[in-house]
Amino acid sequence: MSSSTGERQGDQIWLPGTVADRIRTSSTNQIPVMPFEVSAARVGVIIDRRLGRQTPMWIKKLAEATPHSS
Question: Which of 31, 14, 12, 13 is nearest to 22 (CA)?
Answer without folding.
Answer: 31
